Structures
1.
Amino acid sequence: MIIFAGCVDDKEYNDNTYNPSINDVNAEKMVIEAGNVHYYEWNSNLSKMDVQFKIESNNPIDVFVVLSNELENIKNDKDFKYYAELSRQNILSYGAEGVVPSNTIIVIMNKGDKDAQVSIKLLAVEPIDNNKGTLKTSVFKNENKNSKANNNQLSDLELNTIHYSPYPLAFYNMFYELGEPDVTYKITNNGENPITIRLASEYQGYSNKAITTETIMPKETKEINQTIPLIKDKIKQIKTKTKFSLHYKVEYDNNGEWKTYDEQTDMIDVYPMDTIVWEIKDDKGNGIPMNEYIAVFVTPKDTSIMELLSKAKERHPEKTLSGYQDEDVNLQIKSIYDALKYDYKVSYVDVSNAYGKDYVQKVRLPKESLKLKSANCVDGAVLFASAIEALGMKPYIVVLPQHAFVAWDDGTGYIVALETTMVGNADFEDALNEGNEELDANWDALNDDDPWNGQIIDIKECRELGVLPME
């Protein structure tokens, strides 16, 4: 059995094949006048239902989920039993889910002095797991206190919350070090009195809580960023795309007691440590390019790079690699190229590069490419950039919509490029010519105002911005 509150978009379904979602429900809207109570109920011949709901209001309201036989106690301001896990006070937006008896109702109270414009989405379905028990009730002590002053204060608050998705775990160290936000709160106090708030956010099961306490002065607006500290051992276990439950709560100080103002849980796409996400978006759809973060995969201090340079040094005519102290920079790059070709026997794996706003790309660390003796275009660019940076020189990674390759400053300010995919089947000079031809052919696109046409990523500049190696 499926019960919807409000309307459902037209679609064909039956109880056997249709898997309903709260997102299928169009919100039912109502106005609850100041001081009034609204009762929301549904009918079913089942003993229990799995209920999902989401309620939003323009002014603070209380939401209680109770059994229908508790209505008399509520009307008479007596103590009543309620489902605490599904109920909240003084909220503007709230959603919950749980298994309850079918004679359960939702009580929405407007204790303020302003009418509340309320919308509700509700989905009640027969529980998939019939052995799943119903929630237990608690007793609500109805002290019948005059809370109008408190609600007036809350109605003076304006809250806008922004979060970001997807989450590229490869960047998590840098996000935390640079203070890149997971959640941004913009809070305005339009009232005449200061309001103290407490903000808490977490990725449930994968992080510790980020907690911030702030006092918002009258007529003041504050923008507060929170970066959530992930638990390293937990996220390293993630090997494929998954989802985090982002849970955040906004509370206010009510005479020394914290009360909930807003509480939400949103699902966030998450990519494992071996994947670059070229763009993340806030929940309003605004894009934020992440191109520079390719530098986290460039690991110049890894022991595998030191071993590569040791072999490359033996292939240099002077048996030395001294970076910009040697005028012939290209000859040093050739030594690295030849070591990869003849000592490591690295070959190119024909896997297309996925670069752009809506793409993600798996990237091997240099030590993995050397171990497996293979690399695609991005892997090869990262590998060469790591070796070049280890010599104290200035590497670039050139990314195009379907390709990537490495480049470097030759010591005179001139950028030289190399087609890294040719390392297994061509001489260095041919790969150098091909890289420079590609760079010249795409130069205008690489230097226009649209990074998605292509970009030359300066690894040294990334380091200066704080984007450091993953390892």
2.
Amino acid sequence: MSDAYQTIRLQRCGAVALLTLARPQRLNAIDKRMLGELQLSLDEVERDEEVRALVVTGAGGNFSSGFDLKEQMETRPSGVDAWREILDRDFSTIMRFWHLKKPTIAAVQGYCLAGGCELALSCDITIAAEDAVFGEPELKFGAGIVVMILPWLVGPKRAKEIILSGADRISAPEAARIGLINRVVPPDQLESSALALSRHIAVIDPHLVQRTKQARSRRWMPRSTSTSRSRAKAATTNASSWRLRDKTGCRRPSPGAMPALSGAKMDNLGSLLTETCKTFADARALDDTDRALTYRQLSEAASAVERALVSVGLTPDVSHLSLQDLSGSQ
């Protein structure tokens, strides 16, 4: 794999790719260059058909201290457009680990804070060393949460406590107890444990693993704290265009095999589609505080459409109705 990166390292370990955040002098803080290199490295992992899983870790005894605030202070961005570009870049990079079709495992040691914590949590599985420390201290520094993934893992009440208090001393055992991570291992077993698990996954049918991951990732979709209104509008637009996608959105049987539709089936299909369209239309009017509920409603609506089409003999593909459209992920 490529060795041209400056802020990360990417290497192949058989069927597993090992990605290391490599700015130890800054506790692996995520700067603009690292964001770009992470995107490129994930493109490389996606293209390599021999790679079945990805392990992410940090150099120098720490995972990551989060987004590089020093770099932001030096560039001094101002205005809505400038900040939207920054936040969208941060969000889309972190969510690449969530949307990557191949399984991702975070191996966390030392500090794992703010954006670094969100990156670790965006991986499918998170394994931590006994000395790992997690936290979301953004509010202490006048910043906000870029990827609101925490409520999906620990529940809204506990997430609010962590975020609003700027908690930044969550030990590995406590993180495992509240569902933030999967397991805790001794520091000297961290990398070997992550690689062993990834190799175990790598021998399973890759297409089955990938489809299963994609299905679960669509059902539970974290949201960005920026531009959510425009994303809801985009999702509504996609819902409208879906009805016109006869060739790419729904694989129809040959004319002779088209089933006869009973009145009951037609009524059922019509009511489900009507309710689905209403859900997407309502999404336009909701405030940001209601958006998380809307995401779940949209996911359930897409599933209802799929079930309805199957019930009348069609084979639907509603993948483009994924809540990825709402999250802004590329």
3.
Amino acid sequence: MKHKGSGSTSRPKGSGRGDRSLILTSAAEAVRSLHTRRPARKKTAARISARPVDIIDTEGWEEAALSISQKIQERHLPFGVIMDPICVSPDRDGIVNYTRAGDSATWTGHYLAAEAFRYKVTESPDALENARVALAGIQSLVDITGTGLLARTLVPTDSRFAEAITREEASNGIFKGKLNGREYFWVGDTSRDQYCGVLFGLAVAHEMVTDPGVRSEIAQLVTRLLEFLVDHHWAVVMPDGRISTVFIGRPDQQLALLQIGRRVNSGRFSKLYRERRSALARFVIVPIAFEVLDDHNSYFKFNLATINLFNLIRWEDSSQFKEHFTFAYTVLRRTTDDHGNAHFNMIDRALKGPDRKRDQETPELLAAWLRRPSRDEFVDLRGTIPSCGQPDRACHAIPVEQRVRTDFLWQRSPFLLVGGGSGLIEAPGIDFILPYWMARFYQVL
């Protein structure tokens, strides 16, 4: 706006940083008011009957979990990070290629968390070794980029699988680097979910694995990952200068990652966390409140929110700020608590303690998971189960054994009526071993 008698231009009143802060504060207060006043939604018909845990047959579950871990070591870590084999045929196990490599980082983080809980429960040397393998894989995803950036995945340039993997991931950007004298392709366009999954796993492993060497490696790795993000103002910057994503507008994720940082490296991150907490805590609810408006599409957002709030809440030492974080979690959980999700149930157990109904449901969900095939068989329930709102959305959560086959069941919509492949891709099974070992640790099983 130009002032009379002057050629200068100034901002309209209230358009500065203080005004933006006021707008965000007003938005946060409006969201809080809306969700506080809204009555608890009426629950739909139960998906699975809740039976006492002591009459659920869990015999053989530990053997199944150990078998999954062994399979992961043998078939899903060809280059140290999680990816899924493409088999010769639906009824043969020979591996002809690998796929889903673009999510190697996040699922390696989830796998690390599973083996860390297993180690805490059993003190198994195999669990410790598996955790070290996963940790080394994550380390390679940081080392290979040469800048402290986290890569999505990597594959040796001389591997017979390199051509197919790089072709599938070409849209994410293919880069080259060297690791221990060997040349690799690595995949860029790293997303926030890759960072959140990796840091979730590192946080759990730092807590559950008491080995000093492992804890030292984790502290150094977390420090490198966070310093990269902080130094780049919470933007994920590729070597060519392109920004693949930003954490701006995600106070929940920034604070969750810094919370992990101050837990493993207090001297480096405690002050920064406290500063960001004072500025951002009251806004944590805002993105989550918008995400819960749609409980079907982009369902993976609920996994990210859940694993981030897991560490943000339980390690918060201020009751004032914890109240903000807990309110955001309450809004999130009110959306997902009837979705039949064993993974979310176990996070809820960790944050809120025992609950009879939920803790009876979790073993049923795990039992149903064991009845699912490990391959990506095509599923089409349209016309069999009623749809609501859109053609591929069921009106109620679909029973676990009937749900679409996928890489990690608990990050897929429980309402999805159609999806899958041709039965050639083998899922790793992290979606069983993570909630299973958490259930053992938190004494649900």
4.
Amino acid sequence: MEFCTQEVPRYYPLSISGYHIREAGSTAVQELAFTIASGFAHIELGLRRGLDIDSFAPGLSFFFNSHVDFFEEIAKFRAARRIWARWLKERYGAKTERSLMLKFHTQTAGVSLTAQQPYNNVVRTATEALAERRLCSRLPLKGPAARAVAPAERPCRVTATAAQVAGSAAAP
């Protein structure tokens, strides 16, 4: 983190992940709490190394999971951004807008999918995608047969179409 701050300041050296926490069985609140706490631990490490908060905080990014509880997921993502901005400003003294932004990547949940109902997975994934569409920086979707086998042509087309629908539904 120190090297990147000094030598390649536009590089994002850390992606702090909560995806695996949720896939392992945590709640949305637990995923958010552990992931944000990990981000704050990285902030503390940077400050102990003598780095200026506004020089390295913009280089941190996050990776969250999105499940089918539409409103809970939206609330989780909004809460994450709000908590991050407030703490960086009030606790750590960040001054720039870039430092206060919580940049995150989200992926639709794998544990919500079933091998027995591959085309119902499309609905699950679309619901998960719509919750995060306007809030995150990157959004990959899982296909209908993600739990069963290696992807075939038709499931890949269905996934691509679902991503287009999710993207256009959220477009301004």
